[in-house]
């Protein structure tokens, strides 16, 4: 029940609704009890057992006093108005009781609706906030489709499987206790059978449902794999078609889909067994009660009208017991989903702010990497990606990182905005460690343009103004002009209000990159990180993007990662990384004179 408690903690926010739900459910059960209780005087009237003389007794807290006085008034009513009118009156009372029972039941569900949907909304928000907060390395270990499954199908499973049981938890226990209490008052002997036999039904259903949670966990994992495959297919359709891999992809999808189908069939068969099984067991208990109670009635030990009413009372317990059985199956299925959700919510976030983190408003002097080493895993056997890096980037200077792929260039840049934290050493800005800065203020100092332009399915305007509020249109247009993007934007159908599609796929690579640069220009950061911003472009696009980058880098401190050495020849310092270490450093001309690693890289590119 630990996971249920975690989910129910969210209900605290909606305690007023929960209280109103409980009150209305109690009233519904009370009026249900009263409506069935009225069966006894109706039956007595029909069986002509109302001739007994009853005398009024002073009111007190006694079931016998209430019963005797009720029959006293009933007999007086019969004397005054006759049996037919009395029967009509009793039927009207029953109808009113049933109406009130259903009215309060609806009101209970009315107040339950904001709890159910509000809790699910809160879980979604918590998940989304957690995903935004988790460090990048977490997502390199997880499938994107599986995370999507946890935020969609798992959350939906919690809604339908666990939250629907709140109604059962709030209403059915009170229903069972109240009706059993009334049944004890009517016949303790018969109730003993009910109290003994009904729990046996629950134990049998519980044993059958034990494997449901395990199967549900497997099913949700398969759904995650299925969503991952769908996401990969949509992202890689061009490659799938180019390599005529449609049949391969279809076979792979069909295998996962068939596995999910077979598992879901097993789950639904087990879950659907709960209702007929609990009903059969309930009827079995009812048959025993009818046989034993019938004997008592035939022998004159139990009033026949009371016996019939007792059977009616017992029938009202069968549905709550069935609800508990169904809820047990549902809760096992839902708990599997809640565990998968909690795995994300409880994931450790190592990129956290210090308790006394400072807010940095501006960049004044220099960035310093001091004895920085880094590895993606903390265990002793993991190989360091960066080893003992010492680097100073003075304000207004441009430092370029070059070297073979896998040398640690992007990792070195990612450490500055704390996408990752150093394993050892320190990175400081103006003498303050980045770990001692507020994350938002640290990242506000930086603008990042990556090799893959990250754009969103939104308008051109909103992509350029991304993350900023109340942006002036003229500022966006000016940023686009500096990025050499204004011309092609104005040629689009709706100009700056044109939707660029998923990941900006309606645009060319050069156009996407220039929008990314315009976004960085609008942010106007003092520090720039350019990660191979032109390596995937054609010559014409590269020229336009490079011109935009030059404008962007004016009067700014820049950390540039480049494969094309021709784009960084004017850098103030070039750092050559090889296997996570600084192999060479200096200006373009100085490195050429050394005739080392940089000279070899430059010569190879000269022949391309």
Salient structural properties:
608 residues; alpha/beta; ABC transporter transmembrane region fold; Rossmann fold; six-stranded mixed β-sheet; 21 helices; 10% strand
Concise structural overview:
This protein has helices at residues 2-8, 15-37, 39-46, 63-133, 136-140, 144-163, 165-186, 188-208, 210-235, 237-242, 246-298, 304-345, 409-414, 439-444, 460-464, 473-482, 486-490, 509-523, 539-553, 588-594, 597-606, and strands at residues 366-374, 386-394, 398-402, 424-429, 432-433, 446-450, 527-531, 557-561, 573-578, 581-586.
Rg for CA atoms: 37 Å
| CATH architectural arrangement of the domain at 2-345 | Up-down Bundle
The whole-number mean of residue pLDDT values reads 79
Which structural class matches the secondary elements? alpha/beta
- Sheet with the most strands? 6 strands, mixed
- Give the CATH topology of the domain at 2-345: ABC transporter transmembrane region fold
Overview of the molecule:
- The chain is 63% helix and 10% strand.
- The chain is α/β, with parallel strands linked by helices.
- Among the domains are: 2-345, ABC transporter type 1, transmembrane domain (ABC transporter transmembrane region fold, Up-down Bundle); 454-524, Rossmann fold (3-Layer(aba) Sandwich), CATH 3.40.50.300.
- A 6-stranded mixed sheet has the order 6-7-8-3-9-10. Strands 2-1-4-5 form a 4-stranded antiparallel sheet, with no helix packed on it.
- Helix 7 runs antiparallel to helix 12 (304-345), helix 8 (188-208) runs parallel beside helix 12 (304-345) and helix 18 runs parallel beside helix 19.
- The radius of gyration is 37 Å and the shape is elongated.
- The mean pLDDT is 79.
